[in-house]
Amino acid sequence: MRFEDYKPSEEKHYSILNSNGQIITEEDLLSFSEEELLYLYRTMLYTRIVDEKALSYQRQGRMLTYAPNIGQEAAQIGSAYAMEKEDWLVPAFRELGAWLIRGIPLKNIYLYWYGNEWGSYMPEGVKVLPVSVPIASQLQHATGIGMANNIKGENNVVVTYVGDGGTSQGDFHEALNFAAVFKAPVVFIIQNNQYAISVPRKEQTASETLAQKAIAYNMPGVLVDGNDIFAMYSATKEAIDKARKGEGPTLIEAFTYRLGAHTTSDDPTKYREDKEVEEWEKKDPILRFKKYLQSKEILTEEWEKNTQKEIEKEVVYTFEEIEDKSDTSIEDIFNYQYETMPPHLEEQLEQYKSFLEGGK
Amino acid sequence: MRFEDYKPSEEKHYSILNSNGQIITEEDLLSFSEEELLYLYRTMLYTRIVDEKALSYQRQGRMLTYAPNIGQEAAQIGSAYAMEKEDWLVPAFRELGAWLIRGIPLKNIYLYWYGNEWGSYMPEGVKVLPVSVPIASQLQHATGIGMANNIKGENNVVVTYVGDGGTSQGDFHEALNFAAVFKAPVVFIIQNNQYAISVPRKEQTASETLAQKAIAYNMPGVLVDGNDIFAMYSATKEAIDKARKGEGPTLIEAFTYRLGAHTTSDDPTKYREDKEVEEWEKKDPILRFKKYLQSKEILTEEWEKNTQKEIEKEVVYTFEEIEDKSDTSIEDIFNYQYETMPPHLEEQLEQYKSFLEGGK
Amino acid sequence: MANKLNIVEAVNQAMINEMEKDEAVVVYGEDVGVEGGVFRATVDLQKKFGKKRVFDTPLAESAIVGTAVGMAINGLKPIVEMQFMGFSYPAFNQIISHVARMRNRTRGRFTVPMVIRAPYGGGIRALEHHSESTEALYSHIPGLKVVIPSTPYDTKGLLIAAIRDPDPVMFLEPKRIYRAFRQEVPEEAYELPIGKAKVVEKGEDITIITWGAMVRDVQKASETVKKKGINPEIIDLRTISPMDRETFIESVKKTGRAIIVHEAPKTLGVGAEIVSIINEKAFLYLEAPPTRVTGFDTIFPLPRGEKHYIPSPERIAKTIEDVVKF
Amino acid sequence: MANKLNIVEAVNQAMINEMEKDEAVVVYGEDVGVEGGVFRATVDLQKKFGKKRVFDTPLAESAIVGTAVGMAINGLKPIVEMQFMGFSYPAFNQIISHVARMRNRTRGRFTVPMVIRAPYGGGIRALEHHSESTEALYSHIPGLKVVIPSTPYDTKGLLIAAIRDPDPVMFLEPKRIYRAFRQEVPEEAYELPIGKAKVVEKGEDITIITWGAMVRDVQKASETVKKKGINPEIIDLRTISPMDRETFIESVKKTGRAIIVHEAPKTLGVGAEIVSIINEKAFLYLEAPPTRVTGFDTIFPLPRGEKHYIPSPERIAKTIEDVVKF
Ligand SMILES: Cc1ncc(C[n+]2csc(CCOP(=O)(O)OP(=O)(O)O)c2C)c(N)n1
Ligand SMILES: Cc1ncc(C[n+]2csc(CCOP(=O)(O)OP(=O)(O)O)c2C)c(N)n1
Ligand SMILES: [Mg+2]
Ligand SMILES: [Mg+2]
User: Fold this and answer.
1) What are the extents of the domains in chain A?
2) How far apart are CA C26 and CA C30, in angstroms?
3) Fewer CB under 10 Å: which end of chain B, C or N?
4) How many contacts does B have with D, using Cβ atoms within 8 A?
């Protein structure tokens, strides 16, 4: 692909794999081994199952609020798969697919949504920042990591995510502006899933595409079919390669859809039509990829069935392992405020412990 | 003019009057009476004299920090003159020319820079907001005033100013985005005077023009020769007319230059070449307008000399009237925190007064 | 006619009453229109008053508050919602630099009557940033008023007063008890004065000053200690800024002992100010040091730890006994 | 070798020392590069260390602080400047939501050693927002440290400690006394411990706790009352958060009386916390109520009114006499 061919203002979506699982721009399809293709597909399935299970645990009162991922698997897995091990991932809060393909153990993810800070204790060497709840604030961190790379002369890059709603925040503007001024090696991916809770994309901004916001920073911007894992992969790969070569940041709008609710506390029927959802279900990124793999005879029904079972078992096992054993200890509340606990915190901790023990 | 002819990304400046005082795009020159032309010229002179006097008072230790206006008279007076009486002006802090042409008494302006809050007590009916120091924050107020107009069904418009540095703030982005989404009748004028204190425009943002930032909001954006009073007038007029008709906001980049220091505490020789300043002195907006008026035989040397004297007298008189008589009373510190003074403030006021009186 | 409301319904009805009465009142924020608010506080408002007066905005708190400043100057009375108190910080500059200062800056020429509503406080097993109690930050800012109700009746009366107030009001809603109980509330509009505390329980042994969701926990603690013969006087502060000092000073002069209970961190929480005022005004009446029962000086833990953080009725009761024994 | 520095020069030298020693230290903000800072605190740094390590940024405080979070996570030690404390608020969300929380959020996996420098305080006849003393806001936030020096020697030692600190530090510089006096200061790097107050003057009649530019005004007041036979013990707090409680508690136990002096508004100023701690720890030693001498609960006035606002030596001296007479 050449970014120049996809001027954002023309609302032309970059895509490779259509909803029927057919390749429409053969020349852009980067080559994957069969193994890789199955690995990608497996991760998509895994992501979806983790998501579904979380929802069902939540309904059973066994898990807290959860922000489902369904529908956005290609946008995340396609893009994050283009990263190298030494690259940094800076997520918002709905990046399940990206987390999983970047090697974050499911245990961490469930622990986080289960309400325990240890979920965000990434394994050594995994360069993934924790969930960032204040919308768009994480983009500043991504830019800063990229700026630091330039200062230190390291050439790993940063991939960061934000929602369509997040583009309205001041921090979005500032992060992109800094990144462009300092040529920070950052790929900004807007997951335009069409809604910010109940607010539809068209009420979020008057601009025709979100990708065209790149023009304000003299940054390449491209609009990509976010449900197309190949397009997401190759657009991100190109942006990462540019960044790694010192050519600065890129803005990618992944045009996708949140098939589920905003979070488990949300009822989307209040603000959108079933018909709209059904239209988008036809564009399901997993379905589309499956059709492709089947057409190439890479995927068999048997493999799929076995894999699904295997994943389900693992997911259930992981959740049950953390369930009920994951209360936060009193010390854990105090231990990580500062490297060394100051006297007033020591005192508060001691007082509280002795209160619990029934003393003074 | 048609905004479409001045695509911001092409770096084409909209201009009517060139540096030699010649009209280059006759068809765009809106018609002014001789009286109006002299009034505009007089206001430019007035602005410059107020500015020079403030600087000299400041050097004499008779005034506080002051942010000079010199060089930006056309950008401000040309644009603000396009407003109707019922329109709102929302300034940053360097809008001397705009304040004066909008009818703010010089006394207020000097009182403000003299360090007394009463300077911001605008005369009844003058729809001008006070100085806003936190960069770009005022743009939100402008958008809010415009949104309120739409809600109330009033059709006055809002003109607001921000510097080139101000375009980097999150508030700039949010204010323009809201204005475009809600079709608020707001004209955003960036006075690109090439510096934010010591930071040059090109380090502020990678985008080629500031006007092109409008594209991010699907808003018309136009780059105007900010030292050309006719171009500033007609661009602003067109934007105001559009806004008044309900067609929403416009972004205007006034390409100009701060001939003086950032403020009286600043030494610009630290960060810019004299040669650059000299180049811009040739483009002086007052000089250019004077040449035009002379070529049309509207302006005589005699008129200029008399007017200058007259203005100087008034300016000196006004300043001396406020000087030393403008200390803030103790009551004034307390009286305007809330409509009704709460008991704890009454107590603090009483205690302090009795301390001053030597009592307990 | 029976009009039994819980707190969130009282918030909703207060806005309806005032919007019916006063065309200038408008309501906006994230998800407040079509959705009716993530806590349903603005439900039905858009249907009743139309999209011009009740609307969703793009996701940007600084703009939500900053445009409200402009609207208020231009004659409207905006009520804006911060979806959670923990998301009010992007608007912090607009709040401290403009909302709180416009009247003083212009010597009263421009004023900004507006209400910033925000659900606050912990105990709802929420994600990070959704359990904040940072009322102290806003109470340190001259020019703002900060109001926190604890019952449906107070909520309605105080919110109506806030909407009518000529000055800006941060109206913080204790979301933990949004739906905890219902109360008979007049259907028509009524005002409760901002800046007046309420004596919730009369007592003579010790004064307990609290607000928001903690009022109920203090009442529980009070039940416990009453069995041991200690009778606390409980004061619901209701307005944090400007504070009703008289009510608690009078009480402390009577009881000689005081406890302040809040969810926020201890250091520089509102309790610190109350202790200081008691010292200033009732020093010679004190029989024990005024004592704070608060959240820890730590970040509010994720749900698996929050039960430790918020002062429990047991922790409050224990402190009451300690202070009475002092 | 003689190295007599004023406070702003001490700031400058501390950064130079640390940048020479530690490649990871970088300095950026508005006008800190070519210009050397509007107060000249970063003068020569860019010349010495190059544009990679010392640079100007676009005008956006949230990005300045937010990118510093990223830099710190990626192994650097950023020192960022807020041009004035009153312009730190656009960064408030980054500070409270991320700077202060990254360590706790990730159980120590990611930390953000960084310094946010800001000139603060009034008395320089400045425009609106240029005279702020909002240290209390930042001191209410768990996870931050807040340091305020009052002499060149302390400035250098504390800033170096702040740069080396594994946790984020708000380093607030009393700009009123940036150039008030010089002091002999070691040329090489040295550290003073964060979290330790200093007894500036020994005395037995009353304890005065203060910080920043007010230290000198308190010393002037002390001269006045000494003539009347009152000997105050003056404590320069130096670190506002976490506070050195021991030093002032010990002093108050000795003197039985305490005054806290600060520029910030009274309500929920840091004085409130100190009064509360004294109550908690030294109640039985108190012979008079701990008393605050502070700015008013008003917006800081423009220059023509500021002389009333900042506690004067006379106002402080009068309060000392009153408290001693109590
Ligand atoms: C600063 C801030 N304001 C409000 C919220 C509450 N909130 C959480 S998610 C969300 C919508 C986000 O929409 P978008 O950016 O499109 O991401 P999506 O949820 O669609 O993935 C809102 C308003 C928040 N987390 N942070
Ligand atoms: C939020 C904020 N940060 C920093 C400052 C300090 N400051 C005052 S003016 C200025 C530069 C403004 O540049 P620009 O927007 O180009 O306007 P100009 O001064 O050129 O008119 C700065 C950094 C401020 N007033 N507000
Ligand atoms: Mg979205
Ligand atoms: Mg400028």
Assistant:
1) 3-328, 330-360
2) 14
3) C
4) 114
C7: closest CA of chain B, how far (Å): 28
Residues of C whose CB is below 8 A from D237: none
- Report ipTM for this prediction: 0.98
The superfamily in CATH containing domain A3-328 is: Thiamin diphosphate (ThDP)-binding fold, Pyr/PP domains (3.40.50.970)
Q: What are phi and psi of A252, to 5 degrees?
A: -120, 125
> Sign of torsion, CA C87 C91 C96 C101?
negative
The Cα B47–Cα B69 span in angstroms is 8
Categorize the per-residue pLDDT at A4 as very low, low, confident or very high, splitting at 50, 70 and 90: low
Ligand 2, atom 4: closest residue by C-alpha: D87
Cα–Cα distance measured from residue B144 to residue C25, given in angstroms and rounded to the nearest whole number:
14
**C193, C149 in Cβ contact below 8 A?**
no
Give the tens place of pLDDT for each residue, B119-170. 999 999 999 999 999 999 999 999 999 999 999 999 999 999 999 999 999 9
Is A171 in contact with D62 (Cβ distance < 8 A)? yes
**Residue D145 pLDDT greater than 80, yes or no:** yes
Cβ atoms D234, D215 nearer than 8 A: yes
Instruction: State the pLDDT confidence band at C1, using cuts at 50, 70 and 90.
Output: low
- Give me the helix-helix angle, D45-53 and A138-152, nearest 10°: 110
Interface test with A, best of D55, D107, D167, D237 (most A CBs within 10 A): D107
Residue-wise burial string across C221-235, b where 16 or more C-beta atoms lie within 10 A, e elsewhere:
bbebbbeeebebbbb
Q: Pairing between strand B186-192 and B250-255?
A: parallel
Cβ contact A159:A248 at 8 Å? no
The nearest CA of chain C is from the CA of A315 a distance in Å of: 21
Q: Does residue C288 surpass a pLDDT of 80?
A: yes
- Residue C75 with chain B: CB contacts under 8 Å: 148, 152
Ligand 1 touching residue A262 (CB < 6 A): yes
Measuring from atom 7 of ligand 2, which residue has the nearest CA? Answer: B135
- Report which residue type is found at D275: V
Q: Does C90 touch chain D (CB under 8 A)?
A: yes
What is chain A's Cα-based Rg? 21
- Please give the pLDDT value at position B324: 80
pLDDT in tens, B214-233: 999 999 999 999 999 999 99
Please tell me the distance from the alpha carbon of residue C218 to that of residue A342, in angstroms, as a whole number.
29
For residue range A147-205, list pLDDT tens digits in order.
Answer: 999 999 999 999 999 999 999 999 999 999 999 999 999 999 999 999 999 999 999 99
Q: Phi and psi of B85, rounded to 5°?
A: -55, -40
- Check CB contact of C297 with chain A, cutoff 8 Å: yes
Give Cα A116 distance to the centre of its chain. 20
Nearest Cα residue to A184 out of A246, A110, A95: A246
Q: How many residue contacts between A and D have a Cβ separation below 8 Å?
A: 138
Residue A65: C-alpha distances to residues A121, A266, C59, C125, D171 (Å): 20, 10, 21, 8, 38
Distances in Å between the alpha carbon of B143 and those of A355, B150, B179, D111?
54, 11, 5, 39
pLDDT score at C255: 98
Among partner residues D70, D142, D246, which is closest to A148 by beta-carbon distance?
Answer: D70
Characterize the bridge pairing of strands C232-236 and C77-81.
Answer: unpaired
pTM: 0.98
Angle at CA of residue A171, ends A170 and A176, nearest 5°:
105
Number of Cβ within a 10 Å radius of residue B354: 11
Cβ atoms B348, B334 nearer than 8 A: yes
Give residues with Cβ within 8 angstroms of C295, minimum separation 6.
C122, C133, C262, C263, C264, C265, C266, C269, C309, C310, C311
Contact by Cβ (8 Å): C239, C138: no
Domains in chain D: ranges and CATH: 2-186 (3.40.50.970), 198-325 (3.40.50.920)
